[in-house]
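Dissemination and training. As part of the outreach component of the grant, students in the summer workshop were shown how a complex can be specified as a set of sequence lines and then modelled as a single object. The example used during the hands-on session is reproduced here so that future cohorts can follow it. Participants entered these lines:
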Amino acid sequence: MLLYHDPRAPNPRRVRVFLAEKGVAYDTIEVLIADKAHQTPEFRKKNPIALLPVLELADGRVLRESMAICRYIEETQPGPNLFGEDPWERAQIEMWNRHAELELLWPISQVFRNTSKFYEGRIKQCPDFGQQMREHVTERLAWLEGELGKRSFMAGDRYTVADITALCAIDFGKPSQIRLSAELHPNLTAWYSRVAERPSAKA
Amino acid sequence: MLLYHDPRAPNPRRVRVFLAEKGVAYDTIEVLIADKAHQTPEFRKKNPIALLPVLELADGRVLRESMAICRYIEETQPGPNLFGEDPWERAQIEMWNRHAELELLWPISQVFRNTSKFYEGRIKQCPDFGQQMREHVTERLAWLEGELGKRSFMAGDRYTVADITALCAIDFGKPSQIRLSAELHPNLTAWYSRVAERPSAKA
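and obtained this result:
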């Protein structure tokens, strides 16, 4: 398997952490967004809409979208279950993975796109929207702080794909100065330690 | 089963269309966003982040997030398969469902939130961001027009959950004057007729 990725982008990292948890070996090709390598005609043959990551199988089939890739890995590779063992657990994990994605990763990415120096001149930035998304994340972290008082991991009492998404989201807040605070977020801070200490977090 | 929904919002409609395709009977409670009914303390007991839809099972368990609900229905109810029959088909459908969601439904929703009269005074609107998302949708429709020349439905040669998401997205473009054009989008227009003609589209 071959993963097209950018080491600094959050969605490719979700897949790398997932593959590390599964213990799956794979090759990589770096496609650096900073160099606009994702927008070349060559890469657009792999993904016409110029998004990372992309997984290429040994037979040449190509899969886009981080969660489509992770689901395929979940079903075709051995290793720990990360999407749920029965319909109700699968639904719970899907719910919390989507919360982590839509309430954290997505708005945090929008803060970066719309307010960072990195994107200045690359896209038409809307700083007002970035600011709103920053406030949205503040609210959602306050909510999740309460949730993580009830259990050890995002979706229950074990580590799942929802923790991978939330970890990648929180870490991608760093360049926008979005951080957990030990004072405001003791439960989230303890959760973060649990997931960031795993060897897979370095992937 | 009890579905908390707003008849005019696109995410609850995804679940209603899905349930109609499955032929599943269910009760509904209307939670009208126009009346701010989703923001009451009572509804926040069902969903603390005030989003629709919410599914309540007979035993009182509650599930949020349209795709978590649809996956649970897929696994626990008979009826046609809408998420894929094997790992590769499931990965393809997940990929196209996410494309329909992230490249159509989500930006179309942002156009509405940031430029509509409906949201004036309800949220702090960023019309510039709305305009950018409008341009994004125009580009993505041009891409999907080519894709739908290769096959009859979003994810392949049969109707799946990816068509439900794309249908609800296109229809939610109407209040923002985002429409398919028979001239620019002949393939998408033909696809739209195929999915909009199904009885489930009225759900």
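The domain at 87-202 of chain A is CATH 1.20.1050.10 (Glutathione S-transferase Yfyf (Class Pi); Chain A, domain 2). Students were then asked to discuss how this feature might be tested experimentally.
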